[in-house]
């Protein structure tokens, strides 16, 4: 599915970051990041390996503390937030991990029930079944409900991972390398699914990738992490309309120029 054209409401960012810095000893990874995620948009964060994309996601999800700067999620500043409040915010954010993070010893149904039962108390068996079936239908894998993760392909596991995240109805989706390790056709299917999720669930998403096809297909807006800062931002064509030697090889490699 093509990405939705989004009319961006620039007043009410769901995630807002200013002057974010993070180092590990002498390794200055994030050197002053500003970022806004607006309601309903797919924002792609592009960057080479090791540029700090995962560190950024971990800071947004409260798993790492910034050294400096402001990080607001749903209007709440994370720096001094209590763990209980952070947990409440985390439920409103869905993480789609690179490795899909499925439990290998549980069926697909049990994998999907697990986050639901843990985070939403008092649901009836009927409500649980219907939530599981709805998300599986949304990712096109209702038929896999009784299968084990080991019986699924990489692309199917990725879909189940996304379903597992969607079951809590997140307002924000954080996709970490959604097409990593997938063949080009399966990658395109996952990109389409990301666009379907955006439209069906009205999520605002950050998509972390170095796959330019993914960026082009899913991103309403793209920003590029270069030397610890976001230096290029705009549509796909705007970001790559440059002679910057840090950016050009990226494009040339992906599109074999
Ligand atoms: N907990 C940590 N302790 C020390 N260094 C870390 C830690 N987490 C990340 N780093 C360092 O921060 C830098 C950025 O790592 P990060 O995982 O964010 O990269 P990335 O852009 O997500 O790369 P990739 O695309 O390969 O996943 C790396 O140099 C990494 O070694």
UniProtKB/TrEMBL annotation:
SUPFAM superfamilies: P-loop containing nucleoside triphosphate hydrolases. InterPro entries: AAA+_ATPase (IPR003593), ABC_transporter-like_ATP-bd (IPR003439), ABC_transporter-like_CS (IPR017871), P-loop_NTPase (IPR027417). GO terms for molecular function: ATP binding; ATP hydrolysis activity. Coiled coil: none annotated. Pfam families: ABC_tran. Residues 15-252 form the ABC transporter domain. PROSITE patterns: ABC_TRANSPORTER_1, ABC_TRANSPORTER_2. Keywords: ATP-binding, Nucleotide-binding, Transport. PANTHER family: PROTEIN TRIGALACTOSYLDIACYLGLYCEROL 3, CHLOROPLASTIC (PTHR43023). This is Phospholipid/cholesterol/gamma-HCH transport system ATP-binding protein. It comes from Mucilaginibacter gracilis.
């Amino acid at each position: 599915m093509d990405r939705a054209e989004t009319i961006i409401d620039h007043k009410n960012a769901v995630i807002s970051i200013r002057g974010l810095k993070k180092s590990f000893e002498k390794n200055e990874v994030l050197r002053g990041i500003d970022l806004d995620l607006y309601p309903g948009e797919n924002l792609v964060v592009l960057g080479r390996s090791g540029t700090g994309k995962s560190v950024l996601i971990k800071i947004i999800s409260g798993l790492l503390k910034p050294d400096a700067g402001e990080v607001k999620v749903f209007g709440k500043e994370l720096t001094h937030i209590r763990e209980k409040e952070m947990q409440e915010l985390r439920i409103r954010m869905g993480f789609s991990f690179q490795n899909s993070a499925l439990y290998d010893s549980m069926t697909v149904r049990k994998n999907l029930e697990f986050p639901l039962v843990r985070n939403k108390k008092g649901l009836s068996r009927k409500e649980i079944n219907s939530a599981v079936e709805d998300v599986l239908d949304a990712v096109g894998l209702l038929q896999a409900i009784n299968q084990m993760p080991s019986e699924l392909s990489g692309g199917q596991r990725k879909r189940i991972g996304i379903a597992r995240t969607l079951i809590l109805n997140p307002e924000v989706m954080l996709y970490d390398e959604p097409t990593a390790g997938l063949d080009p056709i399966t990658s395109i299917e996952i990109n389409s699914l990301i666009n379907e999720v955006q439209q069906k669930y009205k999520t605002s998403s950050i998509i972390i990738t170095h796959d330019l096809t993914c960026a082009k297909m899913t991103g309403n807006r793209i920003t590029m992490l270069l030397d610890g800062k976001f230096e290029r931002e705009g549509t796909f064509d705007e970001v790559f309309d440059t002679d910057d030697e840090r950016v050009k090889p990226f494009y040339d490699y992906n599109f074999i120029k």
